[in-house]
C-alpha cells in the first residue's frame, strides 16, 4: 500500500496486466466495470445503449495475446429513463441522467450497485444466482444528493457502506449507509 502523499507528480503507474477484448455484438461505450471474485467475472455495463446491456469476461484470462470475448448476460430495463422533469430542469444533460457511469460488486458477491448521473441502484442476488438473472429483478433505488457529474462509487469492506464521488469540482466524497436508505 502506498501512503497518501508519497507519490511525486513525475511518477507513473506500472502496467500489471492488459486485457484485450471485444464485445460479442460490436462495440459499446462502457464506464461501468466491476470485478466479482465470487463468480470469477469482470462485469461491464454499457452506457449509451437503451436499455443498458450487461456483459461478462472471465476473471482468469487466457495467456498470451488472445483477444477475449465479452458475453452479453442481459439488458437492464429496470433502470428508469429520464423523466420530463429531468429534461426540463437541464435540457443539455437531463436526457442522460439514467446512463450508467459506475458499478461495483460487494465483497461477498451478493450485491451489485450501479451509479447513474441521478441515482444509484442496488441489485441483490441469492447464492448460486447468476448476474444476468439478478439484474432482471427490480433494484432498490438509492436517491442521491445532486452531484454535478456522479462518476465513481464502491462498496466498503463491510458491504453495507457505499462511497460515491463526482468527476467535476467540487468533488465531494459521499458515504452512504445502505441500512439507512429507505427501500424503494
Descriptive key words:
single chain; 184 residues; mainly beta; Neuraminidase; 5-stranded mixed beta sheet; 4-stranded antiparallel beta sheet; 12 strands; globular
Could you please describe the fold and organization of this structure?
The chain has helices at residues 84-89, 131-134; strands spanning 21-23, 30-36, 41-46, 53-58, 68-75, 100-105, 111-116, 119-124, 140-143, 150-155, 161-166, 174-177. The protein is mainly beta and 184 residues long. The chain has a single domain, classed as 6 Propeller (Neuraminidase). The termini are far apart.
CATH level-four homologous superfamily name: TolB, C-terminal domain
Strand order of the largest sheet: 1-5-4-3-2
Structural class from helices and strands? Answer: mainly beta
The helical percent reads: under 10%
Low-confidence stretches: none
**Mean of residue pLDDT?**
89
SSE arrangement, N to C: EEEEEHEEEHEEEE
Beta-strand percentage? 35-45%
Write down the domain tally: 1
CATH topology, anyone?
Neuraminidase
Radius of gyration, in Å, reads 17 Å
- Which term fits the overall shape? globular
Architecture per CATH nomenclature, i.e. the level-2 architecture: 6 Propeller
Number of H- or I-type helical stretches? 2
Give a quick account of the main beta sheet: strands, pairing sense, barrel closure. 5 strands, mixed
Q: Care to count the β-strands?
A: 12
State the end-to-end distance.
38 Å
CATH structural class: Mainly Beta
